[in-house]
Amino acid sequence: MSNTPLAPAPVTSEHIDLQARNVSFSWEDTPLHWLPGEPFAGHTINVLHLLLPAGERWFVHVYKQVLPYITDERLRADVVGFIGQEAMHAAAHDDVLPHLKRLGLDPTPYTAQVDWFFEKLLGDRTLPPGRARKWWLMERVALIAAIEHYTAFLGDWVLNAEELDRRGADPMMLDLLRWHGAEEVEHRSVAFDLFMHVDGNYRRRARTWASAFAALVFLWQRGVRFFVENDPQRPGAKASFGQFHRAGRKGLLPSTGSMVRSIPTYLSRTYHPSQEGSTAQAVAYLASSPGANGGVRP
Ligand SMILES: [Fe+2]
Ligand SMILES: [Fe+2]
């Protein structure tokens, strides 16, 4: 039996210097049902606008605390680039919320819950300096690595979701999703590399994956229900798992099967995020994204 431990195997050609891009989107011409005839799928994707601003600001907040623990200069540069990109993502999704409110769907009751989740439940606790404080910091670094597994998964999905184009999805919304998705693919290794650098404990990785997955499923299904049940154009509408599954089969959402398969992928001891998704595809999209190149309506 070999004594060589199984270790993550990064694809070195997938590394890239990260930069935050200034973006510009204008929402006045985007309808509430920006994915024509598929309000459930559109609302499921809309949950991103509710979760990401608070979630990505929380990433930035945690990562600023972990910077002193980084002893590798290239990783430090990656983390600084990551912080810049995530701050921009949070602001861009935040800008959609007033537009949804103008269209009759006020997201404030739900975003208040999400803010509580990230700021209070996952925020800084009044821990004394020392082991307890460091334990909580490492726990959150591992949680972010698990969440970033899913943001990269979604980014790769949306870059390849041609069915959204065929169904006539609003080009501005599609560009927001694909610009963000492309940057998620571009920086998909940073959170994992950071976790491996400062801790890397496999039990922590598995435990925090379970917490992150459960939290994402819980928050996402609540968000979908919130949007569907408060849609002013569809009074009495209800959300169900069957609708999610069918939209996945149509290519309008990630398929249930691909989501299930992503679980053993992350839990494999040889997994590294660079093994999935394509940096070349992400960079090519970013070079052509209207929002990332002056903000003209696509
Ligand atoms: Fe992001
Ligand atoms: Fe990210």
TrEMBL record:
Keywords: Hydrolase. It comes from Streptomyces katrae. GO terms for molecular function: hydrolase activity. The keyword Hydrolase applies. The lineage of its organism: Bacteria, Bacillati, Actinomycetota, Actinomycetes, Kitasatosporales. This is Metal-dependent hydrolase. The keyword Hydrolase applies. It holds the Pfam family Metal_hydrol.
